[in-house]
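Quality-control log, excerpt.
Job 1 of 2 completed; input and output follow.
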Amino acid sequence: MKYKRLIIILGSLFSLIVLCTILSFTLFKVNKIEFDFENSTSIFASIEKQTEVIKSADINTKIPIFTLNKKYIKNNLESNNPYLKVINIETVFPNKLILHCAEREELFCIKSRDNLYFICDEELKILNIQQSYSNLQTNAVLVNDVDILNTGASVGDFLELYSGQELIKNISSAFAHTNKTVADIKAIFKSVSLKYEDNVFVAKKSPTFTFTTFDNFEIEVRNANSFLNSKINILLNYVPELYEYYSTNKFIIDINPNNIDEIVTLLERA
């Protein structure tokens, strides 16, 4: 009697497992994938393009949704689609995935020693590689005086610099604090250069950004590794108000470590 009862219990458990397995591979397998873009997109707007992107992700739609390797999917999406940034992959039970993404925007153009132009976004991800460059107000900002470490990098890789990498990447976030977009930066500045100068306050060299506008005005931001957000804010607020002075003088922005209120210093061009 005990064995009969045990057989019934085991049979019920086996049937339940079989049922759950069948449901997992039917009810819970992926049958819907949606995009949710956190910024406006022109590249990925069409249904045809989104279908192509989803195909490049190599998502196994025959297995339960909760067994998917999201890291693998994200890597496939971003490596096969350089302009796509995957922020998160959301699972919506029973069988839907939502791809939370953003379209990467061209911001920096960095020239290599062999005369290739690496077009990168704010994170220095390579979006395009060109053999020539036109400095228009809608194009990427030319970055001068930096050396590329991984000169053999390809589209989809992240560019590595010998020095100043984090400083360059901080430019975008500093402008974002003033509500300026990537498009705004490209419309104002045609180039930015990075140099290191002696800093008497810290007894070592510190970085200086020189932003050049399309009117060929130069704006220097010294000690760029400290208070960069504040300096960019000052830059954008003072330049329009001091246009007459600014048109004949170099505008130098600095923060004295001993007195943060003395932020702006105007020096006549020699």
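Job 2 of 2 completed; input and output follow.
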Amino acid sequence: MMSHRVLVLYCGLLMSISAFSVDITLPSFPAMVSGLSTEMAFVQWTVTAYIFAAGIGQLFWGSASDRFGRKPTLLIGLLIMLGGQFMAALAPSITLLIVARVVQGFGAAAAITGSRAILRDLSSGPELARNMAMATTVFAIGPIVAPLLGAAVADLAGWRIVFAALGMLTVPLLLGLFFYPETKTQLQADALKPQRAWQNMVALFAHPQSCFFLLISILAMAFMLLILTMASPLYESEFGITGLKFAALFAVNGIGIVFGQMLNRWMICKIGVVNSMLVASVTMLVSTGIFVALALTDTLILIVLPPLLATANAGFLVFYANATSLVLDPHAKISGFAVSIFGFLTQIGSAIIVSILVVFGDAATSTMAFQMFILAAMILTGLSFWLVRKPAAGGI
């Protein structure tokens, strides 16, 4: 059976498979456009469709894990995800590729909810935040390795094999379930009943801490999703960089996350969870402010862009990991449900925001930079309001 530390690391791998599923495809966007005779906007929808499905799927998997346990729901969800990955590898059109990504997202939702619920089963308070930070450090494997692996596989065998390779990476997670000790020891027989869901919903949103950090996390996830959807077109339009070169530069984001979460664990001990989020939100605002200035003055150079996005990305992950802990901490008995609502609202809400920004915006670098800056400013403003209020809501 897994030790406590190994189980936290396994949760990090479960988290990473979802991000991995997005990041591994980014270098192949131009090849998908050519191979499927479609437009870049439709290929970008493979990301947002995945996010939508993963968000909606969490509504089911969270309560199901409270009802049946973490292990059986993870098993079924990962098998569905595996099927979607091989569907994508065989998709003859962009429409069917998007459908396959929806299947993948729905299955991946079980891994998203399961990993976070397991962490809440194991710990609470500042320890929960530290475990979440450790798992998020493992999560950073995705942004580092996925684009490089995706670009290398696509160069050697084509973009379709990228999805087959992704499927092979899902298999070890399935095997890991044989060593996972079920952490949901008290199952809720009525967890899937509408009346119980309504009662849980009221309890979640009636708690000021959970409600606030859930809503502000929607903006934070939109910040991240904007980077994901715009990174490949940005590097191609500004610097003519695609494929393996793009993957290597995009991998810097993951390095930023690793250092950010290492610093986050230290900050949680020294200044607390919320103050660590304040540092992260200021980092997001400053880095995007510099991005705006460089874009508007046409002085953005290649050597500056990767560390700039990595810094913004690291700030996001510190903020989001800690916000997750703050939402879940007061709800030990319904952690699966709380995780599902958190994941659903942050992913669907952010996907809606970014879809609107992409449709009504333009492809200019300055537009992307300004959109990121506005989101960061809204996040910092909201968090500042929370700190000024200092509600006696309990929690971390």
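Post-run check on job 2. The mean pLDDT is 89.
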